[in-house]
Amino acid sequence: SLGRLFGLHFWDREHVLEFLRTQERDEILYNTTAFIDLAKSYFTTRWVHFWPHVVGAVIWWNLYFLQLIPKIRNKFIAFHRYLGRILFVTAAAQVVTAIGLANTGHSSVVKIVSWIQAVAVSYCIFWAWHFARVKDITRHKYWVVRLVGYMQFVALQRFWIVFLVVSHKSGWHGLYGPVTESTSLEERNKLLLQQFDDSFILCALTGIYSTEWYMSSTYGWTRARSEVKKPSSKEVNGINGTKKIS
């Protein structure tokens, strides 16, 4: 989605709006107008929230993974710390702008999921920042990994909306009724917006479950005590932060 926004020159509102005015129907998405109208709102009434949200997304998605690479953390400690500060501020800004976008929309589902994510992400930011300040590296890493997991919601939403649309158009009508030539534009738009709402529910559940399962596996809660390998003295030093930042 970021690639498409750059292709449209998202920073140039007039250019994007001119393009959107030429799009009468979205033929791929059931020949509807719902997403076109939604996109127009981003570049008009919701621009004050949308623009910083996209800028924050660009910063986060292109840099956050550098914090998770052990060799970079251990070799470039100053870089790791400064980039961490930038990413903390970026994540906080993402929370604020996401709430702004949700509250200026019309979907109660999107509002609820956005507030749930905002609380989860804010909680992780607070504790990750706190333990970084007191140099408790083990707990800092724990909350950072959770933060990364909860920040995946939006990326997962893209996956689920594609899954729901493609599966429905491929003939699976277990969740939504079929679309025929007699289906009105209003009904088509309603269907697409329902799928959009459902994708938010699915992305929240997937993000929470995958984060919890990953944390359980990482900290050995999916293995018996006899199966857990004892860390070497070098690894212990790294975990405790005496020699390395882990």
UniProtKB/TrEMBL annotation:
Coiled coil stretches, renumbered: none
Transmembrane residue ranges: 50-70, 82-102, 114-132, 144-166, 199-221
Pfam families: DUF2306
The entry's keywords: Membrane, Transmembrane, Transmembrane helix
InterPro entries: DUF2306_membrane
Protein name, entry field: Uncharacterized protein
